[in-house]
Design a protein that fits this description.
With 220 residues, the protein is an alpha/beta fold. 45% of the residues lie in helices and 11% in strands. It contains 10 helices and 6 strands; from the N terminus they run E-H-H-H-H-H-E-H-E-H-E-H-E-H-E-H. Keywords: Carbohydrate metabolism, Isomerase, Magnesium, Metal-binding, Phosphoprotein.
């Protein structure tokens, strides 16, 4: 039997409510470029890196700028986003997240962050979440975006456990796929229509407990 020894958490949409700030920044960029970017369009960007997100947005707008222009656009969007998250506080931690992180640590489970965000440390510090993690792997430490498993494999390596001993918590299809490619079990936070490949589905971390985790995700 393979025991669960560590939990690796995505950030946006799992622990904190930053998705709205990403969406508003992308929507503002699209408006400046002359087209509409809807919440439905934004679903394609979940768990995707900044430049890959920009490529999706530009595809929606049927635009094909040169590389230097794309870099400027990505920087502009990120500046708007950073301005928003710089005002975050602990009130934006999602329901159940703090309680479950505390429970994991009290039961001896190691915890890591596995996020594509290059602004993860700003968010963690502003919300007071930094001390809850034994390892923090973010977009500044990875070269490949999800669904590549790099971010989760680095998390497992830094914690000192095999992929089979780790469980990932994700709200994005690309993140679920990354966890599967890493050889890790995965809890999806959201709907079955996009996260159906997860080993366990919940609507929020309010539904999660260490007891349930160990009971429902045991692998012989």
């Amino acid at each position: 039997m393979t025991l669960i020894k560590a939990c690796i958490f995505d950030l946006d949409g799992v622990l904190v409510n930053t998705a709205k700030y990403h969406y508003l920044a992308w929507k503002r960029l699209a408006a400046e470029l002359g087209f509409e970017f809807t919440e439905q369009d934004n679903e394609q960007l979940k768990g995707v890196s900044r430049m890959a997100s920009l490529d999706i947005l530009l595809g929606i707008g049927k635009l094909n700028p040169d590389e230097s222009t794309k870099q400027e656009m990505a920087e502009r969007k990120n500046n708007w986003y950073v301005e928003s998250i710089s005002k975050m506080d602990p009130s934006e931690i999602l329901p159940g997240a703090l309680e479950f992180l505390n429970e994991c640590r009290s039961h001896g489970l190691k915890t890591a962050l596995g996020s594509a965000s290059k602004n993860a440390m700003t968010i963690l510090n502003n919300t007071g979440l930094t001390p809850y993690f034994d390892a923090i792997i973010d977009g500044t430490r990875t070269s490949s975006a999800k669904p590549d498993p790099e971010v989760f494999l680095l998390g497992a390596e830094e914690l000192g456990f095999s992929p089979a001993e780790c469980v990932v918590f994700e709200d994005a299809e690309a993140g679920i796929e990354a966890a599967r490619r890493a050889g890790m079990r995965c809890v999806g936070i959201g709907g079955a229509e996009t996260l159906g490949k997860a080993d366990l589905l919940i609507s929020s971390l309010e539904e999660m407990s260490v007891d349930r985790l160990l009971r429902e995700l045991v692998v012989s």
